[in-house]
Write a structure and sequence with these properties.
The structure holds two protein chains of two kinds.
Chain A (H helix, E strand, L loop, with lengths): L1 H19 L4 H8 L4 E2 L2 H21 L20 H17 L3 H8 L4 H20 L5
Chain B lengths: L1 E2 L6 H22 L5 H8 L7 H21 L11 H17 L4 H10 L3 H24 L3
Classes of the chains: A mainly alpha, B mainly alpha.
């Protein structure tokens, strides 16, 4: 049941990315280009997403159990530390260079984009490097 | 600043955003998990990591979206902005950065801000700021 709900959520997420314009790197960079011809569209993606998700997260904070019977796993970290800030800065640089963040890059794979394939292979390699560097040591 | 009115797509972007938010709402209330794409993928890269099944199911749905879309309409256009080596550098930065930063546009930007997390606000300001700065440097200082 948890997996079935996740499958539907993934599908809706992907349709949302396609409809919103997030799966178009040119449009993403048009939003990040404040000094050029600025396309404000993606600010509305954020506004729509937060508007729809905020009530659900408010509810979720008060719940122990999800509809599928599992636990509700909300993040517990609260510290604003160096890995958070430096990692996010590095992510932002990569996002600005290619116009892909992780979700749209994955969706672009099945849109038949070779650029997305190259990007996703490099992105997963980057994640694997992190997993290796932070592996639990005996 | 000059607003690109011809490229501005307020309604489809707002509607797409609402779908993304509803997906995150469904996942947290239905499956008890945060719809953070980098976390979902990254969690699969740890041997014996938790929650493999729902992660794969979510990613399956995500990858199926363009295939379903294509049954009803032409896929939206996608203009690439980088090629070759730059894509590799960008992908590595996004992969390493989102894992050290514990999230990306979805996990921090949508879910984190929706649960009013100051930590996610800090991350979102950092990656948005870096994104704005990078595009400024590439387009206006280097003139690419």
């Amino acid at each position: 049941m948890q997996a079935l709900i996740a499958l539907v959520a993934g599908l809706v997420f992907g349709i949302g990315l396609l409809l919103s314009g997030m799966a178009n790197p040119g449009k993403v960079v048009g939003f990040l280009d404040l000094a050029g011809n600025w396309d404000p569209s993606l600010a509305l993606v954020m506004a729509g997403a937060i508007g729809a998700a905020l009530p659900a997260f408010t509810l979720a904070k008060a719940r122990r159990q999800c509809w599928a019977g599992c636990d509700v796993a909300l993040p517990t970290a609260t510290r604003i530390d160096a890995p958070l800030v430096l990692g996010s800065l590095a992510f932002g640089v990569g996002w600005g260079l290619a116009g892909y963040c992780p979700g749209p890059a994955l969706v672009s794979l099945t849109m038949g984009s070779m650029s997305a394939v190259v990007f996703v292979v490099a992105m997963i390699a980057g994640m694997a490097i992190h997993a290796w560097l932070t592996r639990p040591r005996a | 600043m000059n607003i690109a009115w011809d490229a501005f797509t307020p309604w489809s972007s707002l509607a797409g955003g609402v779908l993304i938010g509803l997906s995150a709402a469904l996942l947290i209330l239905g499956s008890g998990r945060v719809a953070g794409i980098s976390g979902i993928v990254g969690g699969l890269l740890r041997p014996g990591g938790p929650d493999t099944t729902w992660r794969l199911a979510f990613l399956g749905g995500l990858l199926a979206a363009p295939l379903l879309w294509r049954l009803f309409a032409a896929l939206p256009e996608a203009q690439p902005v980088a090629g070759g080596g730059l894509l590799v550098v960008a992908g590595l930065l996004v992969g390493i950065g989102t894992r050290y930063g514990s999230g990306c546009t979805s996990g921090h930007g949508v879910c984190g801000l929706s649960r009013l997390s100051p930590r996610s606000l800090a991350a979102t300001l950092a990656f948005m700021g870096a994104g704005f700065a990078t595009v400024y440097v590439v387009r206006h200082l280097l003139g690419a």
